[in-house]
Design brief:
It is a single chain. The chain is mainly α and 126 residues long. It has one domain. Helix content is 67%, strand content 0%. The chain is built from five helices and no strands. InterPro entries: Tetraspanin/Peripherin, Tetraspanin_EC2_sf. It is found in: Membrane. It comes from Rattus norvegicus. Keywords: Membrane, Signal, Transmembrane, Transmembrane helix.
Length: 126
């Protein structure tokens, strides 16, 4: 029961944190991740067909097809931000759902943990 309660507290906290992030905080987290991972940055630029996080410098290398064909490339921040916002809301909602089912498990455990075994004394329940 104690372990389930601790799991509830952690899961509830993470779910609330996912739902509480505003766009500015989300953008800051995404930018830190963008600056720290070059391989993920190249994959994102190639798959989403965008260049740069907030703005694109033509002197930088960009694996997106729009940069190779000399078209105007959009920045990746709005695309990633929209997707990350949807994922955070989804994960937060699912986490809240399961955290409340865990608290139901804690309550049921507390409620029925001292229930007597009917096989020990069959007339006790009559």
């Amino acid at each position: 029961m104690i372990i389930l309660l601790l799991v509830f507290i952690v899961q509830f906290s993470v779910s609330c944190a996912c739902l509480a992030l505003n766009r500015e905080q989300q953008g800051q987290l995404l930018e830190v991740g963008w600056n720290n991972t070059a391989s993920a940055r190249n994959d994102i630029q190639r798959n989403l067909n965008c260049c740069g996080f907030r703005n694109y410098n033509p002197n930088d290398t960009c694996p997106a097809s729009c940069a190779k064909s000399n078209q105007k490339c959009s920045s990746c921040a709005p695309i990633i931000g929209e997707y990350a916002g949807e994922v955070l809301r989804f994960v937060g909602g699912i986490g809240l759902f399961f955290s409340f089912t865990e608290i139901l498990g804690v309550w049921l455990t507390y409620r029925y943990r001292n229930q007597k075994d009917p096989r020990a004394n069959p007339s006790a329940f009559l």
